[in-house]
Hints:
Elements: H1 3-17, H2 23-32, H3 39-51, E1 55-59, E2 65-69, E3 76-80, E4 86-89, H4 95-105, E5 115-118, H5 121-124
Parallel strand pairs: 3-5
Antiparallel strand pairs: 1-2, 3-4
Helix pairs in contact: 1-3, 2-3
The protein binds zinc ion (2 copies).
Amino acid sequence: MSTSTNRDKVIQTLQMLHKELSAQELYMELRNQKKGIGLATVYRILKSLKLEGLIQERLTPVGESFYSLITPSHSHHLNCLGCGKVIPLDICPLNKTISQISKSENFKIFYHTIELFGLCILCQSDSHSCGNLHQPRMSRPEYQNEEHHH
Ligand SMILES: [Zn+2]
Ligand SMILES: [Zn+2]
């Protein structure tokens, strides 16, 4: 009965806060707004919004999902393996390629993700430990990984 309004509440909250939220955070936020929706309903709404191409999901290395509205401008992140710092990138290296793939494969692409992993400028320097002494670093200058989810 109130599925569409609950759906609107979720979209509005993501719009209003203008950032990535986990299902749990979304649930807490809606509860703070006195717009209580059960956590199971939040998950169900997130799933259907995902299939409609309205939101995207980002899975963090610790296995937590974050959801945000899909906007024409989006960002990618540099993840430092040394100190765990996340640096947003304001360019998308793939925008053009993706519209070409969409045409050639006849696949409707809603969004894409690329996570870049390596070491930040502080962690590249041996004089800085980044406060991460318990995790010895190998002599591995750079580690890069690209991942795409469709
Ligand atoms: Zn670092
Ligand atoms: Zn991109």
